[in-house]
Write a structure and sequence with these properties.
The protein has four helices and nine strands. By secondary structure, the protein is α+β, with helices and mostly antiparallel strands. It has a single domain, classed as RNA polymerase II/Efflux pump adaptor protein, barrel-sandwich hybrid domain (OB fold (Dihydrolipoamide Acetyltransferase, E2P)). The strands form two sheets. The protein has a six-stranded antiparallel β-sheet with strand order 1-2-3-9-8-5. A three-stranded antiparallel β-sheet has the order 4-6-7. β1 and β2 form a beta hairpin. The two termini are 17 Å apart.
C-alpha cells in the first residue's frame, strides 16, 4: 500500500489530512504493519488541547505498545469511537476507517513542518 499523496506525514509515522481547519490524524500503513495486529487504542478526550508532538493516545498490538503523537497544535473535536470496539480498523484501513482523531486548528501553517508522501517515502528508506 503506497502512502497517499493528499496526506502529510510525521517522522513518528502519523498522517494528517487538513479540511476546513480540521485535521484528521491516523497512523501510516508502515506503522500499523510494524505493530502487527492492533488489539486496543487509547484515545484522548474531546476538547483536549494538544501541542505539536504531544502524546495523544496509545496503540497496543500483539507485538508492542506505542504512543501516538499529535502532528500539530490544536483541539480534539472528535475521536473515532469505532476503535473502542474495532481497533483492527487501524490494520485493515489505516488511511480510511482507521483514523484516530480530528483536531481543530487555528492556522494551516501549523502543518508546514510535515512531510509530503515523497519525503515520507525517503524517510522510510533512510530508517531501514
Amino acid at each position: 500500500m503506497s502512502n497517499p499523496d493528499y496526506l502529510l506525514y510525521t517522522e513518528d509515522h502519523e498522517w494528517a489530512h487538513l479540511e476546513d481547519n480540521v485535521v484528521t490524524v491516523g497512523i501510516t500503513n508502515h506503522a500499523q504493519d510494524s505493530l502487527g495486529d492492533v488489539v486496543f487504542v487509547e484515545l484522548p478526550e474531546v476538547d483536549q488541547e494538544l501541542g505539536n508532538g504531544d502524546a495523544l493516545g496509545v496503540v497496543e498490538s500483539v507485538k508492542a505498545v506505542s504512543d501516538l503523537y499529535s502532528p500539530c497544535e490544536g483541539v480534539v473535536v472528535e475521536i473515532n469511537e469505532r476503535l473502542n470496539d474495532e481497533p483492527e480498523l487501524i490494520n485493515s484501513d489505516p488511511y480510511g476507517d482507521g483514523w484516530i482523531i480530528k483536531m481543530k486548528i487555528e492556522n494551516p501553517e501549523v502543518l508546514s513542518h510535515l512531510m509530503n508522501a515523497d519525503a515520507y517515502d525517503q524517510h522510510l528508506e533512510s530508517e531501514s
